[in-house]
Amino acid sequence: QGTLFLVPTPIGNLEDITFRAVNMLKAVDLIASEDTRNTQKLLNHFKVETPQTSFHEHNSKERTPQLIEKIKAGQSIAQVSDAGMPSISDPGVDLVRAAVDAGITVVPLPGPNAALTALIASGLSPQPFYFLGFLPRKKKDLTAELEELNKRKETLVFYESPHRVKQVVETMQAVYGSERKIVLAREVTKRFEEFIRGTMEEVCEWLSNENIRGEFVIIVEGNEHAETLEDKVWESWTLKEHVSFV
Ligand code: SAM
């Protein structure tokens, strides 16, 4: 039986692919790509001649059993997404689950990821952090999700598209107040990489003056006043103790 390799690809700068990733892409029998045309550019650049098949959110249900059969028959497959880590706000998880269920060896390679790369340069606390990926699109759901996240102490990390980032940050300001710290990590690893750091109010002002383009990771300071689960357990425990001593 073959192996399923999970291979991260650059999030902007082609030099960020690892030697191991390139060698793995050359060595496997097949590459399952989110977008074969996009990945072909990467393969051409690194002179990888391995054939590709498409594996994306719209065909993952039919493709998963087919790929599992191929691996069982002895082929090794590398799964890649358009950029960064497979499965992180990208296709992959269905295939990984099916491989695990089928007793297939799953080998992850380390590599580029937008959230972690942005987080380490944000200046906000990287520990603990909470990664959500994309927020809900509808305004009502967005507000509800942000309110729910306000119960957390962790630094919050989101992905967002350029045409929604302004609306999302304005909603964050409404829910979290003007003073909460926020960082926009734009075009990380690319030519126009930029970090916009400030309070909600300052970053909203920046957004209203800018022609917003590029890819963004949004990083928000956690709610330092939020109660953690441990706080609540402690509270209920001390309350019980108190009652029993009365
Ligand atoms: N799997 C990818 C990863 O590991 O980071 C994420 C894929 S997700 C579909 C794409 C989103 O990631 C973008 O909308 C943006 O929020 C973020 N992103 C990807 N590349 C980025 C970059 N170079 N700079 C800033 N954000 C980026």
Automatic annotation (TrEMBL):
Subcellular location, principal? cytoplasm
Is Zinc one of the keywords?
Answer: no
The reaction(s) annotated as catalysed by this protein in its Swiss-Prot or TrEMBL entry are:
cytidine(1402) in 16S rRNA + S-adenosyl-L-methionine = 2'-O-methylcytidine(1402) in 16S rRNA + S-adenosyl-L-homocysteine + H(+)
Keywords, A to Z? Cytoplasm, Methyltransferase, rRNA processing, S-adenosyl-L-methionine, Transferase
Subcellular localization is given as: Cytoplasm
Name any GO cellular component annotation.
cytoplasm
Enzyme Commission number: 2.1.1.198
Domain (Tetrapyrrole methylase): give its ranges: 3-203
**Molecular-function GO term, any one:** rRNA (cytosine-2'-O-)-methyltransferase activity
Q: Is-annotated flag, keyword rRNA processing? A: yes
Which protein family is it in?
Answer: Belongs to the methyltransferase superfamily. RsmI family.
Function recorded in the entry: Catalyzes the 2'-O-methylation of the ribose of cytidine 1402 (C1402) in 16S rRNA.
Q: What is this protein called?
A: Ribosomal RNA small subunit methyltransferase I
Which species does the entry assign this protein to? Alkalibacterium subtropicum
- The gene name on file is rsmI
User: Which start and end residues of the full protein are shown?
Assistant: 13 to 258 of 293
